[in-house]
């Protein structure tokens, strides 16, 4: 009887054990996920390939290293200028060069990038790849003029599809370089991922892979970026804050109709309500991030002294445009603000380009105003 009882008990235990549902690994992202977990799940769902996940993890590592450099810059003597200029003619800060070295090293070592384009290098950098061969572009420190005052800065990046760079045996060195240069000159529609890492009161990593926009905040206790917002959307309508941004000191250099539009916003806009507030940080990342979370409009038109603006298309303007479109906003350019930034093909890797970006209704209101002007 004791033996039978033991056997029955054993059978019961087995039945209890096998009746429980098997644990499954979640394939949907959730708040609190670390960035590596999010990328692994996106890869498992087939939204991105594993090679891209590796490349993006390397970008995140670079961001964490640059975050530490920015935080320690005053004590480490890494503030101030170097007395040199980058490919676009901008005066280089010490951290510009240090951050660039970090990004180049991390992206090169991941083995998933075939070409690197950075603001701080005159020409693209060809690197050895074991897979993926993505074109990774970045501005290692956006808003570096703010560093000495401890104001918001950040890093912007874009990852473009590999394309082709076929070199024949008959090609000269010059023709081979030109073929690869053409391969890097892609419109924003060829972006497979884009984002930025903002260094401010917290360290924020914004990312889109074409499946919405996600925000990750750096948690120093675990040393990882942790998802804090999912499916970020640019506020619009009643949820939008009445804010416009742009370099107000240059308004007199803008086209007359754009200057009139600023006065129109200050008078309350189309509904004649409360005047729009003016906010301007002077770093593309800071102003874009505020607009992304609060709504409104960021104006970056050409002016009499900068016919193409000052932000670079390949690794600043196009990635930001991709993020805003994924968040339900608009990013346009042109005399009537009716052309998509994402469709512009750069003629050279450091080409500059203007942009109007923000809540969909605000960009559409700008278009209506310019059409009637």
Describe, in plain words, how this protein is organized in 3D.
The longest helix is centred in the first third of the chain and has 27 residues, at 50-76. Helix 2 packs antiparallel against helix 3 and helix 3 runs antiparallel to helix 4 (94-110). Residues 1-25 have low confidence and may be disordered. This protein has nine helices and 16 strands. With 373 residues, the protein is of the alpha+beta class.
User: Helicity, in percent?
Assistant: 25-40%
Order of helices and strands: HHHEEHEEEEHEEEEEHEHEHEEEH
Q: Strand order, biggest sheet?
A: 4-3-5-6-7-8-9-10
Question: Uncertain runs with pLDDT below 50, 5 residues or more?
Answer: 1-25
Sheet-strand content, in percent, reads: 15-25%
User: Could you say which overall geometry the principal axes of the C-alpha atoms support?
Assistant: globular
Report the structural category: alpha+beta
Give the count of helical stretches.
9
Task: Report mean pLDDT, rounded to a whole number.
Answer: 88
Integer-rounded radius of gyration:
24 Å
Distance between the termini: 98 Å
Instruction: Tell me the total number of β-strands.
Output: 16
Could you list some keywords that capture this structure?
9 helices; 6-stranded mixed beta sheet; 373 residues; 8-stranded mixed beta sheet
Helix-strand blueprint:
Blueprint: H1 2-19, H2 35-44, H3 50-76, E1 81-85, E2 91-93, H4 94-110, E3 113-118, E4 125-126, E5 134-142, E6 153-160, H5 173-184, E7 191-199, E8 203-208, E9 213-219, E10 224-229, E11 243-245, H6 256-266, E12 277-278, H7 284-294, E13 297-300, H8 313-326, E14 330-333, E15 339-340, E16 355-358, H9 360-372
Parallel strand pairs: 3-5, 11-12, 11-13
Antiparallel strand pairs: 1-2, 3-4, 5-6, 6-7, 7-8, 8-9, 9-10, 13-16, 14-15, 14-16
Helix pairs in contact: 2-3, 3-4
């Amino acid at each position: 009887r004791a033996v039978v009882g033991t056997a029955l008990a054993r059978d019961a235990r087995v039945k209890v054990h096998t009746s429980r549902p098997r644990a499954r690994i979640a394939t949907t992202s959730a708040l609190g996920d670390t960035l590596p977990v999010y990328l692994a799940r996106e890869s498992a769902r087939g939204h991105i390939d594993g090679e891209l996940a590796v490349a993006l993890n390397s970008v995140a590592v670079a961001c964490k290293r640059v975050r530490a450099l920015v935080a320690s810059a005053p004590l480490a003597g890494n503030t101030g200028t170097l007395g040199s200029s980058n490919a676009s003619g901008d005066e280089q800060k010490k951290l510009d060069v240090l951050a660039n070295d970090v990004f180049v090293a991390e992206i090169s070592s991941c083995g998933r990038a075939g070409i690197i384009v950075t603001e701080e290098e005159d020409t693209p950098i060809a690197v050895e790849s074991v897979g993926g061969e993505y074109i990774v572009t970045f501005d290692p420190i956006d808003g570096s003029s703010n560093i000495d005052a401890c104001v918001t800065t950040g890093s912007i990046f874009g990852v473009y599809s590999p394309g082709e760079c076929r070199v024949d045996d008959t090609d000269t060195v010059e023709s081979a370089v030109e073929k690869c240069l053409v391969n890097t000159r892609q419109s924003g529609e060829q972006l497979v991922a884009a984002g930025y890492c903002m260094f401010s009161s917290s360290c924020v990593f914004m990312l889109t892979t074409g499946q919405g926009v996600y925000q990750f905040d750096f948690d120093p206790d675990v040393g990882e970026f942790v998802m804090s917002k999912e499916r970020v959307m640019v506020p619009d309508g009643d949820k939008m804050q009445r804010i416009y941004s742009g370099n107000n000191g240059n308004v007199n250099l803008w086209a007359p109709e754009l200057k009139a539009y600023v006065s129109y916003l200050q008078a309350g806009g189309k509904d004649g309500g409360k005047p729009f507030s003016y906010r301007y940080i002077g770093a593309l990342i800071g102003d874009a991030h505020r607009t992304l979370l609060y709504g409104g409009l960021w104006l970056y038109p050409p002016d009499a002294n900068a016919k193409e603006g000052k932000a670079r298309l390949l690794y600043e303007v196009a990635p930001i445009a991709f993020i805003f479109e994924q968040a339900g906003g608009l990013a346009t350019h042109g005399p009537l603000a009716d052309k998509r930034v994402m469709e512009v093909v750069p003629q050279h890797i450091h080409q500059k380009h203007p942009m109007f970006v923000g809540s969909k209704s605000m960009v559409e209101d700008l278009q209506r105003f310019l059409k009637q002007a």
